[in-house]
Amino acid sequence: MSYFHALRALCLSFLPFMAGPLHAAPFGDKPVRLIVPFAAGGATDIVARSISDRLAKELEQVVIVENRPGAGGSVGAAYVSIATPDGHTLGLATVSTMAANPAINPATPYDPVTGFTPIITVAMVPVVLVVNPAKIAAGNLKELVALLRRRPGKFAYGSAGIGGVGHMDGELFKSLTHADVTHVAYKGAAPAITDLMGGQVDMMFDNLPSMLPHINSGKLKAMAVMSPTRVAGMPDVPTFTEAGMKAMDNTAWMGVVAPPGLPAAVQESLHGALARVLGDPAVRQRFADAGIAPLGGTSVEFAARIRSELGLRRKIVADQKLKLD
After folding, report:
1. What are 165-200's pLDDT values in tens digits?
2. Which member of 14, 40, 142, 220 has the lowest number of beta carbons within 10 Å of its beta carbon?
3. The domain at 127-248 falls in which architecture?
4. Distance in angstroms (rounded) separating the CA atoms of residues 311 and 251
5. CATH T-level topology, domain 26-125+252-320
């Protein structure tokens, strides 16, 4: 065999190894499941489906979005916390699952600090208070509070589940305004919004992406937004601070977590892949269209965010003496 043919054969022998994906995670080629702890159609679901296709391209593996709703998100979160830490099961973590639910519900079946491997913070999402304008004739937050006080027990607010951030925000609102409003829990934002527009409940706190299409159509009316500043897509809607209720302005966030004990190499690979996903112009545009701000940062920063939010929510529960229904 000539030198040329020998060299050619040697190069060809390396092709199977060179053909692998440049950024593939080092945990095999099984599908990756991204668990959404709320029903399809809500803001969490919107975020998950906005990043899943791009993540699949990064990993060159199938990424399946799987909804596991219930108990304010704790059913899906608990599922992730006990899954095998091999990189094939991820969860979309929210303020509800990582802070609000554990803070207000001592029976939450996982520890938000030690029960997960934080990967990356994905997005910042404003929470908005909306009402059904056919049921509540109020032009602003002040008029809404006055109406609720005049008719105690006559109105109800929906939430994505007991112990979730919408439930906690609703109870904090009741505590601050001394309004008697009944809580109705659902297994996710989408069914709650359906009943809100149908008149079965009258008002709701939820992430802006779920509400924005219905606000824009006029089916729902925004009273105030939980954000440091007004939201670009709703310049006429005040923040709660502007409306005199600074304690309500807590912006929500979402991130990706894995089960505890995830190998460091897998965590690093997933973090890199998701960081590239968040930098993709198409993903950022989908986020912007839904009123979502992409974030990012390190896994250590995400872990610190979880601890900080949990402490904040525990303080709110203690200060306002909030309890489950």
Report:
1. 898 899 899 989 999 999 999 988 889 999 999 999
2. 14
3. 3-Layer(aba) Sandwich (3.40)
4. 15
5. D-Maltodextrin-Binding Protein; domain 2 (3.40.190)
